[in-house]
Amino acid sequence: MMHFLVQFLQTIDWMILVYFILLNSFYALLLILSFPELWAHFQLADDEYFARVLSTDALPPISVLVPAYNEEVSIASSVLSFLTLEYPRHEVVLVNDGSTDRTMEELVRAYDLYEVPAAIQRTIPSAAIRAVYRSRTHSKLLVIDKDNGGKADSLNAAINAARFPYVIACDADTLIEPDALLRLSRPFLLGRDIAAIGGTIRVVNACKVELGRVVEARVDSRWLVGCQTVEYLRAFLFGRLGWNRLGGNLIISGAFGLFARKYLLAIGGYQTGNVTEDMDLAVRLHVYLREQQIDAAMPFIPDPVAWTEVPTSTRILHRQRERWHRGLIGTVWERRKMLFNPRFGSVGMVSLPFFAFGEMMAPVVELLGYLGLVLGLWLGAINEPFALAFLAVAIGYGVLLSVWAIVLEEVTFRRYNARRDVWRLFFFALIEGIGYRQLTVYYRLHAFWKVMRGDRGWGVMKREGFVPGAK
Amino acid sequence: MSLLLVLAVIAVAQVIFVILLTGFVIFRRERVLRRMKRVHAGRARLATPLAHWLVGSGSVHRVADGLRDLPRDAALAFASELHDTRVPRELRADFGDALRGAPWATRAIAGAISWRWWRRLDAARALGIVGTLADGETLRLLLEDDHPAVRLAAMQALSAVDHPDLVRVAVARYPQETLAVRLFISSTLRTVWRLAEAPLCACLLAPDSEPADLAAWLALAESLNLPSLRLPITALALHPDPEVRAAVARALRRYPHADSVEAVRLLLDDRQDFVRAAGAQALGVLRAAEAQGQLEHGLSDSAWWVRFRSALALALLGEAGRASLRRARQSPDRFAREMAQMTSGLSEGAVLEMADA
Question: Which of A45, A307, B98, B347 has the least C-beta neighbours within 10 A?
Answer without folding.
Answer: B347
